[in-house]
Amino acid sequence: MTLREKAGQLNQRMYGWHAYRRTPDGRFELTDALRAETDRCAGLGALYGLMRADAWSGIGHGTGPGADDSSELADLVQRHVLGSSRLGIPALFVEEVPHGHMALDGTVLPVNLAVGATWDPGLYERAAAHAAAELRARGGHLALVPALDIARDPRWGRTEECFAEDPYLAARLTEALVHGMQGDRTEFFAADKAPVVLKHFAGQGATVGGRNSAESELGLRELHEIHLPAARAGVRAGAAAVMAAYNEVDGMPCSGNRALLTGILRESWAFDGLVMADGLAVDRLARITGDPLSAGALALNAGVDLSLWDEGFTHLEEAVRRGLVAESVLDAAVARVLRLKFRLGLFEQPYTRRVPLPDGGRELSTALARRCVTLLHNNAGVLPAGPGVRRIAVLGAHASTTAHQLGDYTAPQHPGAGSTVLDALRRLAPPGVEIHQGEGPADLAVLVLGGSSARTPGTGFDANGAARTAAPQTTCGEGVDLAGLRLPADQRALFEAVTAAGTPTAVVLVQGRPHAVPEPADRAGALLTAWYPGPWGGEAIAEVLLGRTEPAGRLPVSVPRSAAQLPVYYNHKDTEYGGYVDESAEPLYSFGHGLSFTRFAFGTPRLSGRTVEVDVTNTGERQGRTVVQLYVRRLRPAAWPRTLELCAFEGVELAPGESRTVVLRPAVDEAVEIRVGGCAREALTAAPLVVDQSFTAPAETPL
Questions:
Q1: Where's the Glycoside hydrolase family 3 C-terminal domain (predicted)?
Q2: Sign of the torsion formed by the C-alpha atoms of 37, 38, 44 and 46
Q3: What is the three-class DSSP state of 115?
Q4: CB-based contact 417:402 (threshold 8 Å)
Q5: Is 102 exposed, middle or buried (0-12, 13-18, 19+ CB in 10 A)?
Q6: Which residues contact 522 (CB under 8 A, 6 or more apart)?
Q7: Which residues neighbour 374 within 8 Å (Cβ) at sequence distance 6 or greater?
Q8: pLDDT digit string (tens) for 467-489?
Q9: Who's near 435: CB < 8 A, 6+ residues apart?
Q10: DSSP string spanning 373-438?
């Protein structure tokens, strides 16, 4: 390969929607922009977002590829790429798959934070497998999936993309994601499996002030204990690629951080996959190096293999000639790109295999939505709606639209797609129960509040797609960071008006971050959060309200009383410092918290060889699911310990009166107290089981 051809394989310059246009007869034609790009690169290394549709790209129904013609477009572009490459090297088609493929007609799943609330890696693995099969059937190859960011500051607009505030829970879900999308660890990917790019590596969930892309003030211990375990788990599971984050670690942005990308990722972890830069992140390095050419050289030398929209990597040929990059470094990066293409079988079969789209996406999305609905309190016992409830008033703008249920990075939906809370209640309510929207006489008021990550054509976007100016109702998503966490003033006023009427009230939060909700926590009869549960989340919420299903979710993040408390994550250092004078330092609801319509009793944990056993009994009158959570407190640590650390968990579903012994396998490599409970706060007060030596632990998976 010539230097030009090699450099071309490391560039991912175009926005995919600039590569084509619709013709008057409804077919596709390629643009001069694509032809210019393939000519410049002597082919094409990768193309981002060929099927992306949203307000930023401007692609919608009628202009972009749908389920029926995505593969036709992909093959049209691939045919052109092969014809432009002297060596016949195919292109990688890179697509966003944050919660389902971000394309027209793609199955939309609940966002990561909702997935975290399920505490169910097995269910998520099946949903991830479906997303991969859908992507490949439409002609996509490589899936960009958020998984590595840890939610340490809920003011950050991208909190919805995090699985949890806890590294252990995030690691288990990252493993499930990789296993589901990529399948077994084989050299070649099956036709219905997709290699994943795990993002973002690393520490982006801890930016100062919760501001997007800001600096991260992390010590090495905090980095390794909190922000790297999910990435480590993903690498062990066989992840094909990771994406370097925007933030800096120890003063160096991740895309130029050799200690992170080479020292830790490649040398310590023996990762031999691909490293991709985030959008325009390489060019940001010019603030350090002085110009885009040397910025590209810095990123390549640090360990980045594939750029995203940057100018810097377009100068790699010159960087080699000037001695800024050794050709051997360039060759190693090119080899990783080509190896991924070989593993996908693109040299043998560059075009889309014509297979039907997989079935079952709606069912999987709904199943995740059902499992993520979390009952925070039910003080007045107003839920589930009982036989005495004959009239239900449904209020709040979030009750009658699915747009607020979807999260950021979502393609336009067909009108009428999905299920709103209002429509689902009308459809599922028992005969004789009246459902009306708005004020009026009622036995129960259902008030649906929260936030929205919906983007509109009026949203202003940065060059990397982050929201620069957001519509008033947009309160979350990339670029939409908040200084305060209270619900909007009009929602608080509506809550005050409804509760002042004296009607028993159930508040449902549809949100992409934990809002501070002291008034509903204090005065609502019941409080639930469903996060962004996806298009069919309204059905899942209605089923819980009516008692058709049990609330099964558990909090993946702690809920603060106010933004002034932050941080409030449960696994803080075990210091003797007190709280605040003006309010409690404790969270409103703790990590792991979640109630059911039944009750569960946990027995005393006991050691059994290399496992911990605990008896769990459903002492209530309804079948339900609980999550047994095992935490540890270190007794003789080498450094200052954390108050609690999640070390194992297991979901269990029991009939009324049923008992079961749950077996947990924690990885413990030192003397600890083991505490078992239904949430972090409950475990903190539980009687400890003291383990004075290592008793489990494969050595490669320490706590």
A1: 373-596
A2: positive
A3: helix
A4: yes
A5: buried
A6: none
A7: 117, 528, 529, 530, 551, 553, 554, 555, 593, 594
A8: 988 777 889 999 999 999 999 99
A9: 392, 394, 422, 425, 426, 429
A10: -EEEE-TT---S--TT--EEEEESGGGG-SGGGS-SS-PPPPTT-S--HHHHHHHHSPTT-EEEES
